Amino acid sequence: MATEQHVEKNSSKVYIPKTIALDAENEEKFEKDVENIRKKKASESNKRGVIYLGHIPRGFFEPQMRAFFSQFGVITRLRLSRSKKTGGSRGYAFIEFKYEDVAKLVAETMNNYLMFTRLLKCEFLPEDRVHPEMFKGSRRKFSHPKADQVAANRQNSFKSDERLRKIQKRLVNKQRATSKRLLNLGVQYSLDVQIPSSLPKEKKDDSVEKAAVSS
User: Fold this and answer.
1) pTM here?
2) Which residues contact 157 (CB under 8 A, 6 or more apart)?
């Protein structure tokens, strides 16, 4: 049977099983695999190892991921890929373990492991595949982006001439459709908007142009 440990979280105790397979049928085999990894002697060079984790099920976020994979060994860094717009999980993550040998065994044990009806894809990444910025921002606490700020940024973002023409054309078509519906209801209302053939381009900073000319 799996034993339990507890950790402090917001002044309340949260009980987390030390070994949990999330699949009752494979619990015994899973515990043996974890025990073998714990007994495995770490590399004397203290070389760290990184794994790629894919096909992550919904609801399996950083806290749950760290609690689950900590049973194999010490996790030094963890980053779950999230959408910049919505903050939702993209379904894959990178986990760095203190020892390379542990990371290799975790990748071997957890690859094609069934978790919440999904088969995890776990792969060990050699040094040449570990990007220097792979764990950028991993230590920063995640906060969901504010919907109003996201909408404002999208509205205020720079749009090319072609993009502006498409937006204006869509608005004109919408207005004409509205006029047609009102006319069918007996309301005399029409709108005739001409789409300009060209739109003003983005304004450039005069100081930048003057500096370029003077140089």
Assistant:
1) 0.52
2) none
